[in-house]
């Protein structure tokens, strides 16, 4: 499962969403401005900063990876490494 932590005004988030759509990769978007728990998670993995997009990928077997402002290639590689199918 791929979760993208985002804000409505983030240009990098919009770009990554369009790339994920084009590649047929499913994802859930969580707006950190509307979800305080999500904002705390993003801060916890980014040295206290609310850097978006932050992408969390969880595999069915329990593996997990978090990427900050990743490229679509990094996302695809991480999905493959974790054995997550799009």
Automatic annotation (TrEMBL):
SUPFAM superfamilies: Thioredoxin-like
PROSITE patterns noted in UniProt: GLUTAREDOXIN_2, THIOREDOXIN_1
InterPro entries: GlrX_actino, Glutaredoxin, Grx-like_ET, Thioredoxin-like_sf, Thioredoxin_CS
Top-level taxon: Bacteria
CDD domains the UniProt entry points to: NrdH (cd02976)
All copies of domain Glutaredoxin, residue ranges: 3-57
PANTHER family listed in its UniProt record: GLUTAREDOXIN, GLUTAREDOXIN-LIKE PROTEIN NRDH
Protein name, as recorded: Mycoredoxin
Natural source organism: Polymorphospora lycopeni
